[in-house]
Each structure stands twice: as structure tokens, then as C-alpha cells.
Amino acid sequence: MNVYPTPGAARGFVSLLIGMAMTIADVPMMAIAMPGIGADLGLGTGPLALIMGAYPLVVAMLLLPAGQAGDRFGRRRVFLVGGTLFLMGALLSALAPGPLLLAGARMLQGVGAAALAPQALAMIPRLFAPVAQSGAFARLAMTGSFASVCGPLVAGALMVAAPVWLGWRAIFLAEAMLALAVMLLASWRLAPHDGGTAGGSRPAEIASFAAAILCLVAPLSLGPVFSWPAPVFLLLAAALPCAAVFARMTAQAGSAALIPPTLLRKPSFCWSLVFLLLAVSAPPGFFVVLSLALQSELGLSPLQAGLVTAGFPAGVVAGSWTSGRLALQPLARVALGTLLLCGSFLLIHAILPGLTPTHLWPLRAGMLAAGAAMGLTVTSVMQLGMWGLPKLLAGAGAGAIQTMQQVSMAASIALSLAVYGQALETQTGLEAAATMMWLQISTTGAAALLALVMLRVSSFHQQRTEA
Fold this sequence. Notes:
This is MFS transporter. It comes from Paracoccus aerius. It is found in: Membrane. With 467 residues, the chain is mainly alpha-helical. It has helices at 7-41, 45-73, 75-95, 99-122, 124-127, 130-161, 169-189, 203-225, 230-237, 239-253, 267-280, 282-297, 302-309, 311-323, 330-351, 361-386, 391-423, 429-466. It has 3 domains: 1-189, MFS general substrate transporter like domains (Growth Hormone, Chain: A, Up-down Bundle), CATH 1.20.1250.20; 202-257; 264-467, MFS general substrate transporter like domains (Growth Hormone, Chain: A), CATH 1.20.1250. It is globular and about 55 Å long.
């Protein structure tokens, strides 16, 4: 059996790589575009939080259902539909005259991204022989890391090069052109996949899952914008019955559920979700707020802001590479990564108030250190979650981890912008950003403390077993 894909399959794999990359690069590109959007549309941090959080919220709601849709209706078909929706959302975003239409277009892009991402992962076994699949997954992961590195730089370059009248809209036009290229390549080179898997999750289960995430995350964006009216709290309270319905439907569906109950009986997997929420969720909101502060307070151009913050995603790549070469168990690496991440956030907190446009190198170094710690942390948390899972649960586990990442990202952006907006009332932009950093410091510090306690308990049990 040939371990390498045919030339046609290889070109099909390229479309998967580019499709995954554009869904990942979107968030850091938007972080660079936020100040321009706010200035052009006259928006404060509250409405910007709604626009910024719309995309990851919708992805989090639909990621697991979209994966099952690929099984049922065919992965190639769902991939193409997702790309078309992403393309339409990008075009509507570029043409949006106001914040409401822009937020709606971003939600449409989120639907497309949710449909694209799980298909890209799941189609690898169809394109590669078993012995070549690990290399394909590695290339997919490297492409995602590269996209996160290039996203801020590409966004900054587009905004600097675009005419003044086009501005931030050039980013969405570029995304639309890239999505069109992906769809043409995929329709030409990806072999049809009929799907037709029997069973699957029921509509009520999918609806209750999406509703629970919406009720949990949306109030974090809506509350600060509308001064926390009663309906926001009612929406938050509605998460409990939605979660109860989902839990009941999950128990009835058994192994066919969106999140199989046996998956939640794996302690290492459950702890990985906790670490995703506490530690891996910290950087997205920090990254968005810092991009705003650098441009509004220091007067940096979008490209200059992208160059300053590029150290973080570059560090993520280096930290991810280092993680696999440390002779430590996953939990020990999680403890090390979260400790380093908390320390680097403390360093950046101390650096921010004294920054000037001509003295940026301390922040560049701090961003690189934080990125390296983040790369070590996220890779170790992923390995902790997938460690020991049987093959039948691996797909569901990966989908649940991706979903938790998206939920955490949306919550992080909403909370960080809310704290930053409140601090701006009495502080300068950089001082407000430093105040916001206490949110990241506290969550990563809690994650580090938890990992150290778990390590201690695990060591104690191991000693008792050996005795």
C-alpha cells in the first residue's frame, strides 16, 4: 500500500490546510482590525466586544453538530457548504454599514468556520494511508500555528496598504478571496464522500447543547454593553435548564451522543477541560485588548502593532515544539507551562504602564515568553485530555476539546474587553490594559496551583501503591 497520497489527494489536502488556516487566522486578524472598526463606526469597547465575540461563540455552538453533519451528509459536501458560508460572511462583513450588520455577518462566518474545521480533521484518514496519517496531522497543526503567527502581520499589512476609504474592510475582502480559492480547489480535487452514517445526535440534543453555550457566553458580551439589565441575567439563568435537557438527551443517546457519557468518566479528560477554561482561555482576550491599547494609546499603525504582538504566536510555535521533547508526564508539563504563563503575564503587567513608542522591546520579549509558555501549556493540556482515550472516543474527545477552546475564547474576549472598558473610565489605555491583566494572572495562577496540587496527590498515591 502506498503510504503517500496521490497527487490529486495531495492537492485536496492543500485545500484542507488552507481552509483550516483561514478559520484560525481570523481571530488574530480581527484583533488588529478592532481599533479601525471602532474609529470608523464610532464604537466603544462594549459593541466591539459583541462584534469580536460573535465569531468564536457561533463556532463553539456548532462545532460538534457540524462534525456529525459531515458523517451524515458527506464531509466534502459540508466542507464546501462551510466555505461558501464563510465567503458570504466575509463579503457581508466588508460591506456592513453598521455594527449590527457586521456582527450578523461575523456570525455567518462563524457558521462557515464551524462547518470547515471538523471536516478538515476527519478527512485526513481518507486521503492518507494509516502510517502517513500522523505526519498529515502534524502538518495540519503546524499550518494552524503558522496561521496564528501570520494573522496579525497580514492584517496589519493589508490595512496599511489599503486605501483610506477601504481600511479594515480590506481584511474581509482578502478572506473572501482566500475562501473562494479554497472552495475552487476543494471542489476540483477533493473526492466525493457520500456520508450517510445512520443514527447520530437528535435535533433536540443539538439545540439544547447550542442553547446552553449561548446562554452561558452571550451574557458576558451583552451585560457590559447594556449595563446588565434583567433579561441578561434571565438568559444566564436559562443555561441551567438547557444544560439539564442536554444531559438527559446525552444519557438517552449513549455512545451516539454529541459528548458520550463514558468520555466524561475519564478523569484526565475532565481535568483537561478545566485547564482549558482556566489557562488556555487567558490569551485571546489579552491579545485583543493589547492590540487596541497599542494603536489607540501609543498611536502605532496596525502593522506596527502586529509586529509587536507577533512574538506571542511565534512563541506558541516554539513552546509547542519544545513540549514534546520534555521528559515529563503531561500533568507535570501543564504545571510548568501554567507557572511560566502566569509569570510572563505578571511581567507584561509590570511593563505596560511604562511603554513608549520608542521603547517597545520589553513588551516584545514579554510577548515571546508568554507565547512560549502558552505553547507548552496548550500542547500539554491537549495531550492530558487525549491520554488514554480509546479510539472510539478519540473523535468525540477531540471535538469536545475544540469546543471548550472556542467557548473559552469567546468568554475571554468578552470578559477582558468588559474589564478594560470599565478601567478606561479612570485610567489611560495602557494602565487599563495592565489592570485587565489581573484577570489573566488570576486564572493562570489558579490553573498552576491546581496542577501542582494534582501532582502532589498523584505522587502521594503512587508512593502508597509502591509501599
